[in-house]
Amino acid sequence: MVDQAQTRAWAAAASVPDPEVPCVTVEDLGILRWVRVEGNVAVAGVTPTYSGCPAVLAIEFAIEAALREAGFEARIERVMSPPWTTDWVTPEGREKLRAYGIAPPEQATGSKLALFGETTVACPRCGSTHTERLSEFGSTACKAQYRCLSCSEPFDYFKCI
């Protein structure tokens, strides 16, 4: 039997949008690792996308607020191991990124080409792989700026980590 408090706490925490990429939630990104309920305290484990991510505190505060709104006392535990990878972005999260106009990350695990930026990035608007990288950094450090040479539209690519 699934504990109703546990289900409610997970749903509250999982619904928090990423402040830098609001089309996806912390669940979609795979940074919400777990939520457990201890009495009336909901404890959420969160793994930052990278150690220097400026949104880490905002995400943790938003998850804490969501848990409090759901009727729990709240605590956040930052989970650093294993480190987050873009492979943890869910299929739903990848589709949400694409629909928002951001090319989702390639699978990074075991791929030296993906990790060092030598990937083929498909345009999220027209699907063409005839694209070029304009800048290693886009609107945030976790994205690179690309341009589609088929439809001429610029777009962000959520880089592999």
From TrEMBL:
The lineage of its organism: Bacteria, Pseudomonadati, Pseudomonadota, Alphaproteobacteria, Rhodobacterales. InterPro entries: Fe-S_Maturation_MIP18 (IPR052339), FSCA_dom_sf (IPR034904), MIP18-like (IPR002744), PaaD-like (IPR011883), Zn_ribbon_PaaD (IPR056572). It comes from the Bacteria. Residues 10-69 form the MIP18 family-like domain. Residues 114-159 form the PaaD zinc beta ribbon domain. This is Phenylacetic acid degradation protein. Pfam families: FeS_assembly_P, Zn_ribbon_PaaD. Gene3D superfamilies: Fe-S cluster assembly (FSCA) (3.30.300.130).
